[in-house]
Amino acid sequence: MTMITPLELTLFVFVLITAIMTALFRDVLASIVIFAAYSLGLAVVYTFYRAPDVGLTEAAIGAGITTILLLLTIAKTTRPRHDETFEKINWPAAGVCGLFALVLGATMFAFPAVGDPNAPAMTNPDVTVYYIENAYQETGVENAVTAVLAAYRGFDTFGEAVVVFAAGVASLIVLGREVFA
Amino acid sequence: MTLVETTIVAGYTLGDLMLVAAAGFVLLAIAMLYRAIKGPTMQDRVLAVNVLGTNTVVILALLGAALAEPWFLDIALVYALLNFLMAIAISKFTVERGGVI
């Protein structure tokens, strides 16, 4: 087990508080604002664990695009006025969710430690070791994760982009419009 | 060996001290959450999250220096820009009820 630094601990507390508050706020706009703060915390967590792509994506999608999408959504719908600040907690549902989280958390101990050289993923010669040894020579990309995502699985990523594009075109056809906005 | 690893202040490297400073800024972020959660108005919340964003930029810059990872600054820059955009978007929304975002 690796030690959790005070920095990680405070980050986790921050992310946990914002996540719970996002669920508890009764007012949708307040939820969106707190959700943006949650994204800020999570992006720092990803960046701290040296995952630059995930951190950047969380920053751009989580805090930027999602906020604007959600704002556009509540602009098109009605936002009822509330007297209470917080949602009433459905305790049976919270209990079931808590149990589910506990079951998921129980599997955490089966994972190898971060950076463990004997972890199954690190000793697999066909996949991980191949990427680590050849990714830079073959693709010229310094980050192995980016190399796998954009070069080795380039067609896969391209396919995903095609799906998103098709979905955008389809929604425009359904709406009978030529541009979003 | 970089400057943050070789400079020793009171038995700790400069990098360690920067990590402690970053942890302090994260503690401050939790304190700022009080205003974001308590409100009471939406303007308070938007302002609190905006300050949180600026705080995040500082944390990322400190971490980048402490861990000798200069690309942290790229993410910090993206955050600084997005933070501004988000504050404008939410402010515009509350004033014009989604007129122009």
TrEMBL record, chain A:
It is found in: Cell membrane. Residues 13-78 form the MrpA C-terminal/MbhD domain. Its main location: membrane. Residues 124-172 form the MrpA C-terminal/MbhE domain. GO terms for cellular component: plasma membrane. The chain crosses the membrane at residues 6-25, 32-49, 55-75, 96-115, 161-180. Keywords: Cell membrane, Membrane, Transmembrane, Transmembrane helix, Transport. InterPro entries: CPA3_Na-H_Antiporter_A, MrpA_C/MbhD, MrpA_C/MbhE, Nuo/plastoQ_OxRdtase_6_NuoJ. This is DUF4040 domain-containing protein.
UniProtKB/TrEMBL annotation, chain B:
It is found in: Cell membrane. The keyword Ribosomal protein does not apply. One of its GO terms (molecular function) is sodium:proton antiporter activity. Keywords: Cell membrane, Membrane, Transmembrane, Transmembrane helix, Transport. One of its GO terms (cellular component) is plasma membrane. Its main location: membrane. The chain crosses the membrane at residues 12-34, 46-65, 71-90. InterPro entries: MrpF/PhaF-like (IPR007208). It comes from the Archaea. It is a multi-pass membrane protein. Pfam families: MrpF_PhaF. PANTHER family: NA(+)/H(+) ANTIPORTER SUBUNIT F1 (PTHR34702), NA(+)_H(+) ANTIPORTER SUBUNIT F (PTHR34702:SF1). This is Cation:proton antiporter.
